[in-house]
Specification:
Number of strands: 10
Strand order of the largest sheet: 2-3-4-1-5
Order of helices and strands: EHEEEHEEEHHHEEEH
Helix content: 10-25%
Largest sheet: 5 strands, antiparallel
Distance between the termini: 43 Å
Radius of gyration: 18 Å
Strand content: 25-35%
């Protein structure tokens, strides 16, 4: 790996006196308590609780930075604008900053989803590109992101393993898709999970994405059909705990 910049990510800056309350009513994580320099993974869902976009939020003073897929940044900005109505909120690209990643950078914050993902931070762009290295590392430990992996309006938020990856606050109040997400959680009804399996064991009807370069197939499979040996430890433990309840 050369450099730390994730060139496949972009930043949207949400500013204005109503920026945080605006996002609070839309997203799966609590935005009002977001501190400067803190990151939280969150989702913008359909009313039925299916993932439309996933991204990380970063506190930046009174503003919020959205760390999202570069290829989906404009679509996400348009979607947020639909919800803005007359609120005093500005939604704009911030090209002065970039997202950075390194597997070991002790002076930088850990990825909020899972410590094993490594360190992630916001700074001006540098030379080099860490996107491929981070993707391989992320998929090797069974963490999925983006439209191509999660699907769009296809996968329920908790089926993406969002509960285990700190992607939802159950006590934050209403947001788009909250009712079904909360019902699944409190009734322990996460019957399907997004997982990575060897491409040789792929089941096309359950496939979200085929990754020949990594020999993996990302699939939505029923919990009872999952082989624990194929799961990362963090997910195997979570599923075992759910089954035991």
């Amino acid at each position: 790996m050369t450099g730390t910049t994730l060139t496949d990510r972009a930043l949207l800056r949400i500013s204005g006196e109503e920026a945080k309350p605006f996002l609070q009513g839309l997203l799966t994580r609590d935005v009002l308590t977001l501190k400067p320099g803190e990151a939280r993974w969150t989702g913008l869902l359909t009313p039925q609780g299916k993932a439309l976009f996933d991204f990380l939020l970063w506190g930046d003073g009174e503003d919020v930075l959205i760390d999202c897929e570069a290829g989906q940044a404009d679509a996400l900005a348009r979607r947020l604008t639909l919800y803005r109505l007359r609120r005093k909120v500005v939604i704009a690209r911030d090209d002065a900053l970039a997202v950075h990643w390194a597997p070991d950078a002790q002076d930088r914050p850990l990825d909020p989803r899972l410590p094993a993902l490594g360190h992630r931070w916001i700074a001006p762009a540098g030379e080099g590109d860490a996107s491929a290295a981070f993707r391989a590392h992320r998929l090797a430990i069974g963490v999925f992101e983006g439209v191509s992996e999660l699907g769009q309006d296809q996968t329920l938020w908790l089926e993406t393993n969002a509960g285990e990856l700190h992607g939802v606050d159950y006590d934050k109040g209403c947001y788009v898709g909250q009712e079904n997400t909360a019902r699944m959680h409190y009734r322990a009804k996460v019957n399907r999970r997004l997982v990575a399996v060897p491409l040789a064991q792929a089941e096309e009807k359950r496939q979200r994405a085929a990754l020949p370069d990594l020999g993996l197939s990302i699939e939505l499979r029923r919990v009872e059909d999952l082989d624990p040996a194929l799961l990362p430890d963090w997910l195997a433990q979570a599923i075992a705990a759910q089954v035991a309840e």
